[in-house]
Design a protein that fits this description.
This is Sensor domain-containing diguanylate cyclase. InterPro entries: Biofilm_reg_signaling, CHASE8, GGDEF_dom, HAMP_dom, Nucleotide_cyclase, PAS, PAS-like_dom_sf, PAS_4. One of its GO terms (biological process) is signal transduction. Its cofactor is Mg(2+). The chain is an alpha+beta fold. The chain folds into 4 domains: about 150 residues, Beta-Lactamase (2-Layer Sandwich); about 110 residues, PAS domain (Beta-Lactamase, 2-Layer Sandwich), CATH 3.30.450; about 100 residues, PAS domain (Beta-Lactamase); about 160 residues, 2-Layer Sandwich (Alpha-Beta Plaits). The protein is about 50% helix and about 25% strand. It has a 6-stranded mixed β-sheet with strand order 17-18-16-21-22-23, sandwiched between helices. The longest helix is centred in the N-terminal third of the chain and has 52 residues.
């Protein structure tokens, strides 16, 4: 029976007692009328209370979501508009009490266990003194709380008493007016409640929120409830609109923030209070070779793998526990590539979530470039060469310490000045076109230039000039590197003096030995033969004895010049003693060529020599030795054999040429004129 009644519509429930009264007027008009009226009042009480509670419940959504119990309590106090409500209690799904309202003027009786079971089953229960009712609070069809209501039944009891008293009087009136009341109830109650019910169902289902349109509005509670429902729908629509706009704006901001985060080249990682990764952006994959999913729930220290793990763990724990940030911490890490990498970390605490955001940048290349830059700077400052940098206007922009030391200019005094302040314009003018042409075609030039020091002295430098073009700024700079030639020239002079005869400037015995050593090494490689001539001047001792050593020195100088002119450029003429000379002819010459060269030497030497007012005649005896590649011999053997041939020439009457032939153990003799 109860289930059947529950399935009836409100219109059926209201019409059924009246129709039953007409059918059963003879068997129990008073009882039926009484029960019908009582049921109507109870239903009205339940419906009215539910509507009111739902209206209040719709305003409780925000306080519940934001855990604002104070606002919720104030909203619940709106239930005092219904004087029959004894007590209201707002409970969350976990049955915790969120807010309460109580009317101290009315009596509240706690429901028994059985009554509580019926309340949970039916959503309401009529007790002896109170009606117990549960009204859910929903958002988009999802229950977020329940309002437990207790409504006083004093009015029902009073109605019951009054109904019994006037039932006899109304008996006749009810018969006449029953149909009218049914129609009016349909119009005034059922229709508004039906519309209200449909509207509430639409709200519950999340369908379109439309207000209820009623053509005949009165000033009763249903009208107020309808108007309240319409206002509630309007408010909900407005809030939904604002919520949609806010959600749309939030979604756009979130999308923008996500795009910014993913665009950032730094690895962004969020860790919890234990240092475990809870969020990572896409840049982490490029840096750690792990996706965001793979990084999730892994300790940050295991991802970074710092070389000083203990110190980093201590620093990380300290900053996470104290909610402090890390400023530009540089750590060395092996990471996943097993290569030493350098990371720079910056962190900020996220206090609301007890988490921290880490921005990690791979500064390995920057560190390497910085070290390289420092190394370049150190090389620049410690270079033994003077280094200058010019801009496109030929003004000095940078110098190293070597230039400051060599030139005597201070760095502040020279920077910004034109290059002409350190050169002799007149001497440098002919070189400028050559330098410009070389820089235009080859971007570099090298040569010897004398720079002017701070005290006006000339500083010989071997200059290397190069142009550098900046690809980004299209700026052009010129680098000048200068090597101090003063020590080099001095060393060359000492080396020259050590290897040359001071009087004649011919190679001396030491230089001759080096030449013969090189010839022998070349002979081992190529197999060519070469010839050594040993010369001794005839009649030179009498010149020294008769005319003095000064005249003798002039004669030696003249002989040295004549020997140099008589041979080829690749031949070597050396003075090894007072009047003894050695000529090393280039390899590969035929015997006939050697013969002609010797004759040319003897003719050149025997020509009269004029010194001051003296006309002197000097001759020469020559010993020739052809060095073959198939005979083992050293330098001393070579000179000894050539000297032996020369000695034989002396014995033969001077002015002779004798060839030493070791393979035949004989000497070939030739006069001054040759054969």
């Amino acid at each position: 029976m109860n289930n059947w009644l529950k399935n009836l519509t409100l219109n059926q429930r209201l019409s059924f007692p009246i129709m039953s009264f007409n059918l059963l007027v003879l068997i129990g008009f008073q009882f039926i009328s009484y029960q019908s009226y009582l049921a109507i009042e109870r239903d009205n009480l339940i419906s009215r209370t539910q509507v009111l509670a739902r209206g209040v419940g719709s305003n409780l959504s925000a306080p519940i979501l934001f855990h604002d119990s104070f606002t919720a309590k104030e909203i619940l106090s709106a239930l005092k508009a219904d004087s029959l409500i004894v007590k209201a209690r707002l409970e969350l799904p976990d049955h915790s009490r969120f807010a309460t309202f109580e009317n101290k003027l009315l009596t509240y009786v706690d429901p028994s266990d059985m009554q509580q079971q019926k309340i949970r089953q039916n959503g309401y229960h009529f007790g002896k003194d109170n009606l117990y009712l549960i009204v859910p609070v929903t958002i988009d069809g999802e229950e977020i709380a329940h309002i437990h209501l207790a409504i006083s039944l004093d009015k029902i009891k009073a109605i019951q008493t009054t109904h019994l008293k006037i039932s006899l009087f109304l008996f006749l009136i009810l018969i006449i007016t029953s149909m009218y009341f049914i129609n009016r109830i349909q119009h005034w109650v059922v229709t508004p409640i039906t519309k209200l019910n449909k509207g509430i169902r639409r709200l519950i289902k999340g369908d379109e929120h439309r207000p209820i349109h009623h053509s005949h509005l009165t000033n009763d509670e249903l009208t107020e409830l309808t108007l309240g429902f319409n206002n509630m729908v309007k408010t909900i629509n407005q809030r939904n609109k604002e919520l949609r706009n806010a959600m749309q704006k939030l979604a756009m901001e979130k999308a923008f923030a996500d795009e910014v985060i993913e665009t950032v080249q730094h690895a962004l990682i969020v860790v919890d209070s234990k240092g475990v990764i809870t969020l990572a952006n896409e840049a982490c994959q490029n840096m750690f070779e792990l996706s965001s999913f793979q990084l999730f729930n892994k300790p940050l220290i295991d991802i970074l793998q710092p070389t000083e793990r203990g110190a980093f763990q201590l620093l990380l724990d300290n900053n996470l526990n104290k909610h402090q940030g890390i400023e530009h911490l540089v750590i060395e890490s092996l990471a996943y590539s097993q290569e030493m990498r350098v990371f720079q970390l910056v962190s900020r605490p996220l206090r609301n979530k007890q988490q921290a955001l880490f921005a990690i940048e791979d500064v390995t290349e920057c560190q390497r470039a910085d070290r390289q830059q420092k190394l370049v700077t150190k090389v620049f400052d410690n270079s033994q060469d003077a280094i200058l940098l010019f801009d496109r206007n030929a003004r000095i922009t940078m110098v190293n310490t070597t230039f400051v030391r060599l030139s005597g200019f201070s760095e502040d005094a020279i920077l910004g000045r034109h290059y002409q302040c350190i050169i002799d314009k007149d001497k440098f003018a002919p070189v400028i076109p050559l330098i410009k042409e070389a820089l235009a075609t080859q971007t570099q030039w090298h040569g010897e230039i004398n720079l002017l020091t701070n005290d006006g002295q000339e500083l010989p430098l071997y200059i290397r000039i190069s142009q550098i073009n900046e690809p980004h700024s299209h700026d052009q700079q010129t680098v000048v590197i200068g090597s101090d030639l003063r020590s080099m020239k001095k060393m060359k002079l000492l080396e020259y003096q050590a290897n040359h005869d001071i009087l004649t400037n011919l190679p001396n015995r030491g230089k001759l030995y080096q030449t013969l050593y090189d010839k022998l090494r070349e002979q081992q490689r190529s197999g060519f033969s070469f010839c050594v001539l040993f010369l001794d001047l005839d009649g030179f001792k009498s010149v020294n004895d008769n005319f003095g050593h000064n005249i003798g020195d002039q004669v030696l100088i003249t002989i040295a010049n004549r020997l140099t002119e008589a041979v080829n450029e690749q031949d070597v003429v050396a003075r090894i003693a007072g009047d003894e000379f050695v000529v090393v002819l280039s390899e590969g010459q035929e015997p006939s060529t050697i013969q002609r060269t010797c004759q040319q030497i003897m003719r050149s030497i025997s020509a009269p020599i004029k010194v001051d007012n003296y006309h002197l005649n000097i001759g020469a005896s020559i010993g020739s030795y052809l060095v073959q590649s198939n005979e083992y011999q050293n330098i001393n053997d070579i000179l000894r054999r050539a000297d032996k041939a020369m000695y034989k020439a002396k014995l033969k009457g001077k002015g002779q040429l004798i060839h030493y032939l070791p393979s035949q153990h004989l000497e070939q003799e030739t006069g001054a004129g040759g054969k």
